[in-house]
């Protein structure tokens, strides 16, 4: 209740401080007509690239049959959903109008309707959640994803759809949810996925057969005895199959 009451005052203060940044970036957009088409296309292209990276992370973890890696991928998906849900809740609490409705400047894209609130940016919340999740899965993937997510965040302001603080708010929300949640849930999630390997969901978690094991069967290992024969092998070990009598115990009387 207190958050809901304080939200309008907080947003008004931040928005006033953010106007200058918004005006500067949208003015830059108007003077770079050659870039506008690319930035419009990137709105969905950036999301698609990050989704493909998440799909690759799942496919790779599944092939490795690694419980910890698959747990990281599972949290990537779950944490992203939680971040989006949190962002939608914050929109209803703060109910901030879009900057293109409050500031009369030319924008590259048309302004959304009044019920489509601004804080936090949905696009940024989504892509940063994917980037943070990919960072958990692997650092190289995370670095690439972070660059793509940063471009997406700038894109939302460039097109005139959001204030810079909308983008920053979505990024902070997603990063906090993914990283803090992973610290708290890593162990339980890993154990849960290990249990799910015995269910019909197994093909989604690993490509390894259910009966596969890394420990060889004792019957499959060849049994040999080793002896040293300096006269014939120069002192090196010589392997003799166990099915034959040991040379040192065999004699003509044993025939």
From TrEMBL:
<feature type="domain" description="Phosphatidic acid phosphatase type 2/haloperoxidase">
    <location>
        <begin position="71"/>
        <end position="182"/>
    </location>
</feature>
<dbReference type="InterPro" id="IPR036938">
    <property type="entry name" value="PAP2/HPO_sf"/>
</dbReference>
<dbReference type="GO" id="GO:0005886">
    <property type="term" value="C:plasma membrane"/>
</dbReference>
<keyword id="KW-0472">Membrane</keyword>
<feature type="transmembrane region" description="Helical">
    <location>
        <begin position="41"/>
        <end position="59"/>
    </location>
</feature>
<feature type="compositionally biased region" description="Low complexity">
    <location>
        <begin position="208"/>
        <end position="224"/>
    </location>
</feature>
<keyword id="KW-1003">Cell membrane</keyword>
<dbReference type="InterPro" id="IPR000326">
    <property type="entry name" value="PAP2/HPO"/>
</dbReference>
<feature type="region of interest" description="Disordered">
    <location>
        <begin position="208"/>
        <end position="255"/>
    </location>
</feature>
<feature type="transmembrane region" description="Helical">
    <location>
        <begin position="126"/>
        <end position="151"/>
    </location>
</feature>
<dbReference type="Pfam" id="PF01569">
    <property type="entry name" value="PAP2"/>
</dbReference>
<keyword id="KW-0812">Transmembrane</keyword>
<feature type="transmembrane region" description="Helical">
    <location>
        <begin position="71"/>
        <end position="90"/>
    </location>
</feature>
<keyword id="KW-1133">Transmembrane helix</keyword>
<keyword id="KW-0378">Hydrolase</keyword>
<protein>
    <submittedName>
        <fullName>Phosphatase PAP2 family protein</fullName>
    </submittedName>
</protein>
<dbReference type="GO" id="GO:0016787">
    <property type="term" value="F:hydrolase activity"/>
</dbReference>
<feature type="transmembrane region" description="Helical">
    <location>
        <begin position="163"/>
        <end position="185"/>
    </location>
</feature>
